[in-house]
Design goal:
- The protein has 701 residues and is α+β, with helices and mostly antiparallel strands.
- It folds into three domains: 164 residues, no CATH class; 109 residues, PDZ domain (Pdz3 Domain, Roll), CATH 2.30.42; 236 residues, 2-enoyl-CoA Hydratase, Chain A, domain 1 (Alpha-Beta Complex), CATH 3.90.226.10.
- The strands form six sheets. Strands 2, 5, 6, 7, 8, 9, 10 and 11 form an eight-stranded antiparallel β-sheet that branches. A six-stranded mixed β-sheet has the order 12-13-14-18-19-22, with helices on both faces. Strands 4, 16, 17, 20 and 21 form a five-stranded antiparallel β-sheet that branches.
- Helix 15 links the parallel strand 18 and strand 19.
- Helix 5 crosses helix 6, helix 16 packs across helix 20 and helix 17 runs antiparallel to helix 18.
- The protein is globular, with a radius of gyration of 27 Å.
- The two termini are 29 Å apart.
């Protein structure tokens, strides 16, 4: 059974309640202790063997790979190019094309040499920042701070670094000033933040250096291939045990911020609704009364330790919301740690009524493709699964006389392949669903496991940029069979299969923990022969929600993602039902959204957030920053008041009341995109309302 999980490649944790393993030893690691250990050498040898023998991509340990590892390692250490200078890179240039030779010999000493210079540079920068915190900065000078330097060149000298850090500290002071903090609080907060960066760096040991270097190696091969150190392996185990407790959020380190990757359905964060993917956590508090601890610059695992805590305890998070620049404004969210409610991850249903045609559109919301493997293996007849739950929901909605059905896969990152196959089979009589090609080039066809159609009526599938893996298999098959219309955004584009290998199975002589390797072993292809890899599933009707930046999200954002590919099409029969013609629906959709003020407001807000998310520079002029904050808050107020108008509620004039009401008595949000998907499906139903899909002629492919 293949399980597919959408994961980011390095330093990803799922925040469930788990007895805290405690903070690491806070002592400074001596430079003399920063040497590769015997277990690192053995692990390197085994990882190299696995990557060159079993990985789907034919991996050559050569100068081209060496160059990639060289660049990746420096960027993983100093992602924002704020510590090293050009002369540092030049001093280590001798390694650029010799790393491959060193890896073949399992010699990783060069990683430790480079790290020691990095540690020296961090100490210099932090001492400089601490020295200038007390400067009397002038915020009436029209200058800017380039806070995102990931795509820039390394700076030439220490003077250039001093200027960069002067602006950085000035920006940090301005952010806290605009947040209402006085000068003493600002100095205290920033001193703590900068000292934390320094102390964290000084605590990094040989295991941390090995992990960073070996991931620079594995991700140079392919972005979903990653090494899990023993500590990250523990958190990976926690992410797989969804019955644990906590807040339910997947995090990653992004520059010096802790960023939310996704929210786990059924967890406190999901049920609360205020924490979102791409939010950045900037401070943490343990209860309502306690003050907040600034966590900018913290190691991710230390932030995880801080967020974990006992069930029913209160956690406060200060976050920079998605689309808000580092200038803020931030928001504070209060959550109660609790057990992840598995039932909240189940498929659910609702019905949308279209008054103008009296149509009833059923909706299946599917957060993931799940199955209780343990119960299934034991032969229990009542085990939980996506297909079993969806079958019951469809039966119930058909009894309520629905005219069409939407399967909502927004945010669905994948799950069980077998469930994706079975669910696809609900809408086709029989035939292939997906093809799998392994590292040897062998192609296997996966079929609908059961003949017959559960739901023969009009169908739409709603997707977004976070729909991935098993979701793309389902949506791609529905599109290839012409069985329904695909609506939304181009999907993530993950068409590969990973397997996690426990290195301890091969290296257990002295009982050291060697960690695990997640490696790509196969690729999925649609029955049409095309891969979902890289390109994703392109909707038949695309919502105008920021497609201009489609190359900046999903698989397309990875520099060395496996390319799009194709194999021979499978033999299948596509429906030629009227629902396969979408031009009229597209025209009606465009007319409708032009008149829908709330739709336009939300699109404008999405567009604004996306423009903010790609900003690289920020003004240090206080008046400009205040104006930017005001514009963002006004946009938020406009959307809130439009929703309140839809609900027959009075508008809000005081911006503060928005957060107050969101915290205590939130207005139920209007799902504009889902409602529009229902309208599109209704446009396709009306001219052909009495046609049964089961009687429609099929075309042979």
């Amino acid at each position: 059974m293949v399980i597919m999980k959408l994961k980011r490649i390095i330093f990803v944790f799922v925040l469930f309640l788990f007895n805290s393993i405690g903070n690491a030893d806070v002592r400074v690691i001596s430079i003399s202790d920063l040497v590769p250990l015997e277990k690192h050498i053995k692990a390197t040898e085994l990882i190299t063997h696995i990557l060159t023998t079993y990985h789907y991509k034919k991996t050559e340990i050569d100068d081209a790979l060496s160059n990639l590892i060289f660049k990746n390692y420096f960027e993983n250490l100093d992602q924002n190019k704020a510590y090293f200078i050009n002369s540092d890179i030049q001093a280590f240039e001798k390694f650029r094309y010799t790393i491959d030779d060193a890896i073949i010999k399992s010699d990783i000493s060069l990683a430790f040499e480079i790290f020691k210079q990095y540690r020296k540079r961090v100490e210099e920068r932090i001492n400089f920042a601490l020295k200038i915190i007390s400067y009397d900065f002038n915020f009436n000078i029209d200058e800017s701070f380039r806070f995102d330097r990931r795509d820039d060149n390394w700076l030439n000298n220490i003077s250039d670094l001093d200027e960069l850090w002067r602006k950085r500290v000035k920006n940090d002071v301005l952010n806290l000033k605009l947040a209402g903090k006085n000068i003493d609080d600002i100095k205290k907060t920033l001193s703590g933040r900068y000292n934390r960066i320094l102390s964290t760096t000084m605590q990094l040991d040989s295991n941390d250096i090995f992990q960073t270097f070996i991931n620079s190696y594995t991700t140079s091969v392919e972005p979903h291939t990653a090494y899990f150190s023993p500590r990250i392996s523990e958190n990976f185990d926690i992410s797989m045990r969804l019955s644990l407790e906590g807040i339910g959020a997947v995090l990653r380190a992004e520059n010096e911020y802790t960023q939310v990757v996704r929210i786990i359905t059924g967890g406190p964060a999901d049920l609360d609704g205020r924490l979102s993917a791409d939010d950045r956590i900037i401070s943490v508090g343990q209860n309502i009364e306690e003050g907040m601890i600034d966590v900018i610059g913290w190691r991710l695992d230390d932030v995880v330790d801080l967020i974990r805590g006992p069930k029913n305890s209160v956690l406060k998070l200060e976050v920079l919301p998605k689309g808000i620049g580092i200038e803020g404004p931030s928001k504070t969210i209060t959550l109660t740690r609790d057990k992840i409610k598995l039932e909240e991850q189940d498929a659910s249903s609702r019905i949308i009524d279209i008054p103008k045609t009296n149509a009833r559109i059923g909706v299946i919301e599917l957060p993931t493709f799940y199955v209780d493997f343990a119960a299934q293996t034991k032969g229990q007849s009542d085990y939980k699964s996506t297909s079993r739950d969806v079958r019951k929901l469809i039966k119930s909605m058909v009894q309520k006389k629905i005219d069409g059905l939407i399967v909502d896969l927004r945010g669905n990152g994948g799950g069980s392949l077998s469930e994706a196959l079975e669910l696809t089979g609900f809408f086709i009589d029989e035939g292939p669903v997906v093809q799998t090609k392994d590292a040897t080039g062998k192609v296997e066809i996966n079929y609908d496991p059961e003949s017959g159609i559960v739901y023969p009526g009009p169908l739409a599938v709603l997707v977004d940029r976070d729909s991935a893996s098993a979701s793309e298999i389902f949506a791609g098959a529905i599109q290839d069979y012409r069985r329904g219309i695909i609506i939304g955004e181009t999907t993530f584009g993950k068409g590969t299969v990973q397997n996690v290998i426990d290195l301890n199975r091969f290296l257990n002589e002295n009982k050291d923990d060697y960690g695990r390797l997640k490696t790509t072993i196969a690729q999925f292809f649609r029955i049409s022969g095309s891969s979902n890899q890289y390109k994703g599933v392109v909707p038949d009707i695309t919502f105008p929600t920021g497609e201009y930046s489609i190359n900046d999200v999903g698989e397309r954002a990875y520099k060395n993602a496996l390319p799009w590919d194709e194999v021979r099409p499978a033999k299948y029969y596509a429906a030629s039902a009227p629902i396969g013609t979408f031009e009229t629906a597209k025209i009606e959709h465009k007319k409708r959204i032009k008149k829908n003020k709330l739709f336009q407001l939300i699109l404008n807000n999405i567009d604004s957030k996306q423009k903010n998310s790609v900003k690289r520079e920020i003004s240090l002029l206080e008046t400009n920053r205040e104006l930017e904050r005001k514009e963002m808050e006004e946009a938020k107020k406009a959307i809130e008041n439009m929703i309140r108008q839809e609900r027959g509620l009075p508008p809000i004039n005081d911006l503060k009341n928005i957060s107050d009401m969101s915290d205590n008595n939130p207005v139920e949000p209007v799902d504009v995109l889902l409602n529009e998907a229902a309208e599109i499906l209704n446009d396709l139903i009306v001219p052909h309302k009495n046609i049964d899909v089961r009687t429609v002629k099929t075309l042979k492919y």
